[in-house]
Amino acid sequence: MSTPLKPTAAELEMLGILWQRGASTAKQVHQAVLPARPQMAYATVLRQLQVMHTKGLLLRDESARAHVYAPAQRQDALQTGLLKDLIHKAFAGSGKELVLAALRGHVTHQERAEIQAILDRESK
Fold this sequence. Notes:
With 124 residues, the protein is mainly α.
């Protein structure tokens, strides 16, 4: 199987819902989207899911009348791929530079303490 295309921001939103809910119909995804985006029409969600299936981002079970969509990749696998691409393109391949950039203003005091605790555990 070829590597799926990189998801857009809107596609990542749909993937996030499917990773959280598990395999779902377009109607179920639409219901999950409504609290954050009440203006989004069912037809828009359905079309987005169809496009994502065509791109290889989603699997589709067509055995029932209402098709059921599921992510083609696990969340951690897709995130790792996106992160590797970002590190390569924006940080000259340096994971350290990515981490330093994230620590400069993008991490709360609590998150910094959690990161330090992880680093302390790893160094033992």
